[in-house]
Each structure stands twice: as structure tokens, then as C-alpha cells.
Amino acid sequence: MKFIIILSILLPTLSFKVMVPKFCVNCKYITEGDKCSLIPKKIKDVNRLVSGIYDVRDIEYYYCSTARDNKYMCGPEGKMYVKKDEKD
To answer: Where are the beta strands (DSSP E) in 1-88?
Structure first.
């Protein structure tokens, strides 16, 4: 009987949170070719030297698999993940 009373007191305080994986395919930063537009890898200087501005096509990005594999980027837990339909 005491066990049931203790369980009824403790059960509501415990939270059973289910972890839902953060898939890159559902992230707003994924680009065509499965690259992460949040983490630039390299910026080509060719057009910048002429016009002084970067063109989006001059930026190379890491693949999502690389960003998720590296703990200093997005990491396996998806630190930078933002769902596609969420607003900033």
C-alpha cells in the first residue's frame, strides 16, 4: 500500500521525454546536394576581387553528413538544427 502511495506521488514528477532524432532532410539549412548552408567550407575569391561582393554560387558548403559527424559543427545531436517550417 505504501508503495502505491509513493508511486502516485513520484510518477507525475517524472518526465519520460522521448528523443526524436533531428534529420537534416527536415532542417531549413539543407541545400540541394545534401549540404548545410549554415556552415561554409570555402569562399572563392574570384568574383569578390572584381565586384567586391560575394555571390552565393561562390560559397562551398560542407555535406550534412560531415557537419553531423563533427562535434564542433552541428554534431550528432543536431545543435544547429532548425525545423523547416519554424520562423527565426
So the answer is: 30-31, 35-43, 59-63
